[in-house]
Amino acid sequence: MLLVKQQKFIETFAEADIKAVKSQCGLRRADHFTALATTAIKLTFPEQFPSFLPADTGLIVTSSFGPHRTVFAMLDDILDYPEDQMLPTKFSHSVHNAVASYLGTILGLKGPAFAISNFESPLVEALKLADTLLTANLCPQLLLLAIEEHALLTQSLPTLYPERYPSEPKEAAAVFLLESSSEPAAVVLQPNDSQDGVFGLPVEQSNALLETPLPYTIALT
Amino acid sequence: MSSSIIGIGILSALGKNLLQTKENLFADTPVLPHPPTKFKTSLNLPVFEIPDLPTLPDYPGSYTGQILNIALDEAIAQSNLSMDDLRKLRVGVAIGTTVACQLNSVPFYATLRKGETPDVKPLKNYIDGNPAEYIRHRLGLHGPAITISNACSSGADAIGIGHLWLKQNICDIVIAGGADELNQIPFDGFNALGVCSPEPCKPFDANRKGLNLGEAAGVVIMTKHPETRSPFSVIGFGKRADAFHITQPKPEGEELEHAIHQALTEANLSPSDIAFINAHGTGTEANDAVEAHVFARVFGDSVPFMSTKALTGHTLGAAGAIEAIFTLLMLERQLAVKSTRFETKPDDFPVAPLRENRPLHDAHVALSTSLAFGGSNTALVLQYQP
Question: pLDDT-derived band of residue A198, with 50, 70 and 90 as boundaries?
């Protein structure tokens, strides 16, 4: 069972918040995806950010499409410039776990860190992984970030793959601070064919996460 | 608790199956890298390609998916599990990759960015071919399925997570491993970072000039209660992060050391119990220095180590998986292979890798380490009990 100690769902990122975080954390060269992720953490823990978690805390970042804006920016370089002129920062930011390494460095997290890339039930699979790592005592608590950014790829999905993406996945983030718990579950998450809620959850389960007062426990089936 | 490995499938520059891999892993004449043949490039950098395996058009997950599923099929065949067994049991899938997590089709993007409608096959292959999810659907499985994108430790991480799933009774069977094809994006990207060697790589050597990229797939099928006893198992997993830099490892390597101790503690072993270490050993300045110093601190100079990346190149998301398999094969053969092309110990290294193959005597356990972009450190303790 997972105990949710803190959580936040963010569907709109103010430019002022992103700019403030970039300045505070020295993210001038970081890409949009990294800036969004860091902003999401700051908005969840505004008073304590960035030094509010013990070093042994684990970290999971789950994102279906990852830093796709940066991946396409790399492809721009390949299409528009000689092959040996790709910018190294673009490549390093395009790696799916780049944001996990940025967050780990900014927050000082040395516990197990994972980036996962699922299209089906990305949040539930990440929560299951969190449960596995906590149960194994690899970390006493774990910070989990689910995140998607908006850019050309996600914008194009309803046109190019409407049977799977009738609407564009939203630019959004969900942050959870988790521990293990043996208390009875307040919320039960079970994937089914409906994935219309946040990050691949069925709507009613997504609403349960949003509406249950903190702290609360989650069971995963 | 150990996780028995009941099936192994593997493809790399060493061969297209387990038998070819065994022959070439222990061969006297190493496989050599050559300029890429699978994509056009102006960069003169050698790579390790899987020999004689043409790309099937439109395979879900592209060439990465193709080689992953070849390895999977080999592992399933070896495990003697039927498709019916797999559907009835709780089967988890954990696959590591880097290339398959990105939609990096240049022709697709070239059309899209012009505002035109591209051929949608690359997009559908990318989404529908998500490695872990594709396997789950293809085999009709019931259990967790995660695609791990932890860069160069992904394959080892997948095996580690699979081991934990079994230990925690989340699964009856786990399919775990990693796969990555040679692709122009990481090829150009690693070149841009200045870490590619223009000649065959020499991990740990004083004159090393960087890494060679490679491509591979490695899959293991694990269970807690094998019907037929298997000599191979995973008995320890450690995982820590440096919290230091987006690409470089922390030079002091204390979190790699911590991960090694985590794995040894779980396995109830001390450093002196380890027969050898199959290092990450990419051939870059930074990685090899960290590992050499950490190995010296933890193991002294009594535990031999090597890098097998001189034989396969750096296969990114597949590396940790295929190197775990190589470690088991060395234990089975009772022979620790030398670190190919190592000649000269750097002056500041306290220890050096094997210069010659070393016979093992009644050795049962070894360590495999994997380090990744962003300071990810993974250690697996692997066991062979005939």
Answer: confident
Give the mutation candidate from A34, A95, A109 for the B interface (greatest B CB count, under 10 A). Answer: A95
Residue A82 is part of a domain; what is its CATH number? 3.40.47.10
In tens, the pLDDT along B228-285 reads 789 999 999 999 999 998 888 999 999 999 999 999 999 999 999 999 999 999 999 9
Enumerate the residues of chain B whose CB falls inside 8 A of the CB of residue A66: 101-102, 149
Neighbour tally for B261: CB within 10 Å? 17
- Is B101 noted as a catalytic residue in this protein? no
Chain A residue numbers touching B168 (CB-CB < 8 A): 132, 135-136
User: Which tens digits make up the pLDDT trace of B145-157?
Assistant: 999 999 999 999 9
- What total of structural domains would you count in chain B? 1
Buried (b) or exposed (e) across B120-133, using 16+ Cβ within 10 A?
eebbbbbbbbbbbb
Domain range enclosing B96: 3-384
- CATH at residue B256: 3.40.47.10
Find the helix or strand (DSSP H, E) in which A22 lies.
helix A15-24
Which single residue is written with the structure tokens 């902003």?
A39
pTM: 0.98
Domain count along chain A = 1
Q: Say if the Cβ atoms of B147 and A116 lie within 8 Å.
A: yes
